Amino acid sequence: MIGRPDTGILKYGTVVLAALLLLGCASKPQPPAAGEGEAVVAPAPTSSAGIMALGGDLRAHPRAVFSSSSAKYGYFIGGVLNAEYDPVSRVLSVASQAADPAVTCKYAADGALFIDPSEKAAAKRAACDDLILKLHESLVR
User: Fold this and answer.
1) Would you say residue 11 lies in a domain?
2) Minimal CB count within 10 Å: which of 13, 67, 124, 141?
3) What's the whole-number mean pLDDT along residues 104-120?
4) Are 86 and 75 in contact (CB under 8 A)?
5) Which residues, at least 6 apart from 55, have a Cβ–Cβ distance to it below 8 Å?
6) Measured at the alpha carbon of residue 68, what is the angle toward residues 64 and 70, in degrees to the nearest 5?
7) Is residue 24 part of a domain?
8) How many structural domains does the chain have?
């Protein structure tokens, strides 16, 4: 049998290949895993979770400057605001540069705004929310 291929191996290989093709084409699509394919919803920038995320975003931003003397990250938007993040205490501080009455907002590690009892809470919260939105807009660009 010189010159003639072994037909047993050839037939076996063809059957295996056909079975693999059929099984591959006939398999049912698997449902997506939990959380897979779902849109990721980021927290609102002015919420507590958003404030906490903003501190990490500021820390990781390429234009943020780390001060070795204070061990804090700084971010400045000329004429608008100056932000500072302390990674140890996780306190975020944002100060306005453009507002006529200077506004300084300080957020705790849990995202809560520090409000001095002598200040009007609603007015301060509105001014701080505006600064946070400006900071968030600048950091996500």
Assistant:
1) no
2) 141
3) 90
4) no
5) 85, 87, 90, 92, 107
6) 90
7) no
8) 1
